[in-house]
């Protein structure tokens, strides 16, 4: 199933759950037994696979899950495996990307273990998370937007906005 780039547009614009990740936000598990709990470095296996996450405002505890466009992939690598450009926006080898494909807005929720690439099952696009989610194969027209992160008191924290537009191609 693909997500529309308009996802969340019908929600109230002032609803903090639909706001894009904000500087200072933390990352929480999006579903399952640990839904809403803080994601730590120890939760991210070295070399992947990715952990899906939603940003959360640490002051209000508001989870920004009102739009699928806020779904994030967190992956931890040895920093030496990252390109210099990627390393600059990472925190201790952890990278954060939009988990929404730039082709048609499907979730990029799979992992190609051999190549250590993010994989969109809708149309088989692969993204290299060690090189700012460069398109390796498939129809996606551009990289996944990266979300700059940093460690604050040992906690993964949003350090700025996405490096590009989140979501799939817009219809003509």
Description:
- The chain is mostly beta strands.
- It has a single domain, classed as Rieske [2Fe-2S] iron-sulphur domain (Rieske Iron-sulfur Protein, 3-layer Sandwich).
- 2% of the residues lie in helices and 24% in strands.
- It contains 1 helix and 10 strands, in the order βββαβββββββ.
- The chain starts with 25 loop residues before the first strand and ends in a 14-residue tail after the last strand.
- The N terminus is likely disordered.
Which terms summarize this structure?
172 residues; Rieske Iron-sulfur Protein; single chain; four-stranded antiparallel sheet; disordered N terminus; mainly beta; 1 helix
What's the structural blueprint in terms of helices and strands?
Blueprint: E1 26-28, E2 51-56, E3 72-76, H1 84-87, E4 94-98, E5 110-112, E6 117-120, E7 125-128, E8 134-137, E9 149-152, E10 155-158
Antiparallel strand pairs: 1-2, 2-3, 3-4, 5-6, 6-7, 7-8, 9-10
